What does this fold into?
Amino acid sequence: MNVEMTTQPRPTRNDRATIEDVAAAAGVSVATVSRALRGLPNVANSTRQRVEAIAEELAYRPDPAASRLATGRSQAIAVAVPVLNGWYFSNVVAGIEAVCTESGFDTVVLGVSSEADRERLAAGTDSIHRRVDGVILVDIALRAAALESMTERGLKIVTVGPQTGLCPSIGIDDVEVGRMATSHLVELGHRRIGLVNGQPEDPLDFVVPLRRTEGYEGVLTEAGITVDPALQVSGNFSIAGGYEAVSELLDSADPPTAVFAMSDEMAFGAIQAARERGLDVPGDLSIVGVDDHDAAVVLDLTTVHQDIADRGARAARLMLTQVTRGDNRATRIDDPIRLVIRGTTAPPR
Amino acid sequence: MNVEMTTQPRPTRNDRATIEDVAAAAGVSVATVSRALRGLPNVANSTRQRVEAIAEELAYRPDPAASRLATGRSQAIAVAVPVLNGWYFSNVVAGIEAVCTESGFDTVVLGVSSEADRERLAAGTDSIHRRVDGVILVDIALRAAALESMTERGLKIVTVGPQTGLCPSIGIDDVEVGRMATSHLVELGHRRIGLVNGQPEDPLDFVVPLRRTEGYEGVLTEAGITVDPALQVSGNFSIAGGYEAVSELLDSADPPTAVFAMSDEMAFGAIQAARERGLDVPGDLSIVGVDDHDAAVVLDLTTVHQDIADRGARAARLMLTQVTRGDNRATRIDDPIRLVIRGTTAPPR
DNA sequence: CTGAAAGCGCTAACAT
DNA sequence: ATGTTAGCGCTTTCAG
It folds into this structure.
């Protein structure tokens, strides 16, 4: 018996055609094949056609690793999200993937859910290192220094979410989101309006909740309503979190007549909590969410609409522009938002 | 289409430490550095420690492209799904990503939504070519020949969904899913039971709907109920699709008293359709779904529960076992399922 | 317009 | 236990 090796077997020999095979078959040099296939100038038309035909016939595909090694470019981008499930993030990823795949880029997903994950991203010690040409940060707040160090390492950056001023960025005006939702409730006549926030001690420096809170508090103050910290609870952007948070609010001594939940998923939890207590929505409790989740219409939820998958697609295009054309301007796109009034909001009884 | 490939500027020079830098600093050869850092035997302990310290200090990270080129292994896997948004798929992906990242593997997502996409996958002409060590096919039905050709090209395969017999596979007994849901309705006394199916002409050979239909029809027949094709509609596995399908059913001459929707999302659409017509659920229409979506509890939906994210995680482990240990047995894991009875099902009036 | 050849950074024999 | 060296498959000067 042979000695057991820890070294793994080399993967089954992979008899794919290489550029040399194509060159030999076409009677040209590998350099010419490379040029011809990449559409570079200075190749005779006849040569190009012959090379293309033979490459096709041999089912030749350049090895991306070899290409990456020679050029420093990988034809892949990463998308970093706090969590991969959840309606919002999965739709962003879907939008990004569609565009990347269409352009021949790979889409690598990366869950960045802890401070440690972020450090790793910033330090370049994660698996993404040199595997991608750029990374789309979706609601991942990195310090300016971290962004710069990533850029220095040659990574292109695009952010989805709040503006950074350091790279192309696309998102919405989150203060306005808070204002829009809260105004709607105030105009209906509500005075005790609960806020279902993100996490209490946010490990991700998630700025979105802060902005939306700002809008919420601004509107209240302008309406002469005192901001009551007891009405602000943390819902963790999940259905279960929203349920817990609103349960707490409803069981308190002086419950609100309406709540603004920062996401539809938390609003769903709010609906559940209300129904469980025999409360009528919107009679006893008005609820407004954010996102216009696919299921919002089913639950007849009033919400602030935004088009997520499209945003992902445009973020991906910004990224591809940077990668392929080196255009690196820190543009900012603020997407329009709008209030969709459905059946979960009404004047207080 | 490929992105315009006029000669791009070479990416900003990337002064990362290479293995040579580490070797020089440690006063050893690159081979020793390579061995030391990968934990191979035959390296003096003192040497290993010194090399590790220096690598750390220089923030050295091996270039994955160079490594891939030399070994043929890429430390990345792909997950192919029909769509990336949608509760089911995003949860599978989340489970896979968590495990892969933990093991230092990259997770590349790939939307495979058309026949052309599948051909490309099978033929190896897609971007995934030589970029990943394996691919997890989530409810993507490929012909045996296609699977074999992928395997021959050195790709490891794991499927999530129906069994193939050709590779490790993990899923549920979809016939039983159909039986479980339908039995529940039959036991409640329903005789006219609608079926909200997948797509009519399925471009993906999606077998799941066929199996679930088999279970549904089996139970009906056993109960002496004639299978009525007019009660079977296509819902496309989306909320909107379920809504359309059930609307049609409810507006027909002889509407059902209950429907079995093959996914919770389609069931949500069913609820919406019923409510829009002023029908009481479950009084006028009982509804049962499949998945136990996060929002199912909010809508009080009776459903067949399955644990999706965990399934993704286990699929990823199967994949990593194959890739790192070459274990290639075509094992099959059938996950348990269970009926969760909530408020959308009741005896017919 | 085309070819020869020098890498890209790493791994894996093969030596020592 | 460690060093030498020949690739891995491609791109890109530099010559012609």
Remarks:
- Residues 18-20, 30-31, 34-35, 38, 62-63, 65-71 of chain B lie near DNA strand C (CB under 10 Å from a C1').
- Chain B touches chain A through 80 residues (CB under 8 Å).
